[in-house]
Give the backbone structure.
Amino acid sequence: MTAFLTNGPEDATTWLLLAPGAGAPMTSGWMGRMSELLAEAGLHVVRFDFAYMTARQTSGSRRPPPKAERLISEYEAAVADITAKRKGGQLLIGGKSLGGRVASLAAQGLYDAGHIAGLVCLGYPFHPPDKPDQLRTQHLLALSCPTLIVQGTRDPFSGRDEVPGFGLPSAISVYWATDGDHDLAPRRASGATLDSNLTAAANEIAGFAKRLAQAR
């Protein structure tokens, strides 16, 4: 069984399953604050780590994560565990960076099977920094699963100057975090703060979840 951390009311209309990025666990400060804000916005948030991250924390190993495709089965197992616990409402899946990418690879099959209502990606890694030719968008172009991508306008993994040119389908909407980097953190001169960007992102996700619930 997958080990989970939770925030928010279990009787919430929407449960959101989140996996962290490649270099930080579900207990990171960023994941914790994002989960708190989402819970305050009315969602029940469930976090989990992939096995490689759990191994890092128990053994001290710094081995790089497996390829995203090799983590799909772990994400699907987490969805199955959550589905067994959840009573009513809708389930969204997603994550930060790598976590969101893995969720996006699993999303269409889970959506077609009726297991999830949508996908949320926080800082999607469209390509490695400084390698715009190595796009990770092929599967996104075929998505019909309702999807919200929260992206910093100056994210080095693709910002506002690049993403509109990728030809993403209408099922995918993008919310832009003001002057945000890959963690949605802005520069001081922008007038925004990390917490204001995270709060705005949480409210946008809550609105996305509400629209999906109303459409069911």
About this structure: The first strand starts at residue 5 and ends at 7. The mean pLDDT is 96. The CA atoms of residues 90 and 213 lie 7 Å apart.
